[in-house]
Amino acid sequence: MSLRSTTLRSRKRFATGLVAGIAVLSLAACTSNDSSGDDDNDETSGGTSAAAAGSNDESGDKVVIGFSAPAADHGWMGSITESAQNVADEYDDVELRVAEGTNDVNVQISQIETFINDGVDAIVLLPFDGAAMTPIALEAMSKGIPVINVDREFDDPNAARVTVLGDNYGMGVSAGAWVCAEADGNKDAVVAEIAGIDSLPLTQDRSKGFKDALSECGLDVDNRVAADFTVEGGEEAATNLLQAAPKIDFLWNHDDDQGVGVLAAIENAGRDEFKMIGGAGSANAMRSIQDGDSVLKATVIYPSTQAADGIKLARLLVQGKSMSDLVEVEVPRKVQLYAPVVTEENVDQYIDTAFES
For position 62, which CATH number holds? Predict the structure, then answer.
């Protein structure tokens, strides 16, 4: 079958599915960047040259994917684009066209318009603003170009063929469960929280999950401040918190990028009486956990591999493949990645895919 006929058939199927309406299927699953191919091939980690015949990684028709994400103004976002490019490079049948990262909604809309006009086979999009990007994503879908929505959801589920998400509420639950385990029945433990930007739903979800998990062991949040996901904001928020709270037993910081500033404030204050758990899962946080020389004892992962998984799913969609570990013959509508806690006991399992702050 020719590439042209394959692409046209795929686009007709996507457009028909959009018009007919699609029931949303939620699947809690994590796709992997690991290779199941030939261990003797050192140049790939899951790409086509190492794939067994008949596997999803076996080379197929060329797939042109447009990719757009916000500006890489902190480590996690930088890793989003880098990881997407690295996975695309593993496949000799994928051409990834990366738009320049932007925090201007109008610029990002124009990027997607360009991808549509160029006739790409699929679009992987981490929107700066999910609501604002919904109309242009719907336009792409109506023209038979599948959109893979990453991290920040659209207002209309029909604006994406697949949505790949982290688990913000689950991050809070994981952090709270870790605190409960470490408290070991001590209902007098003093718990503090340094959140991200309070106006964002993701921050609200993380805080709600944390509160809900703590309630299971009879604890609550005694002191809470909000920062802004930056090093400077983290240091300022932590300084204020430490001044207001003369005693802390456990501290959850939502974001490891702002955690660089949080740890600086803790060191400047000479405080070491508590245990801290971070958030997002940066490499420098994990190295600190490995070294065991600070109050930081754990972090909760919010995967920066979401766009990389989006690239893999886009390739499967265009080539008419499914997720090989599922019985279902179609790629699912939603993939939500897990939020595990990383400690000194399991840090080696996660550090290789961690992002640099």
Answer: 3.40.50.2300
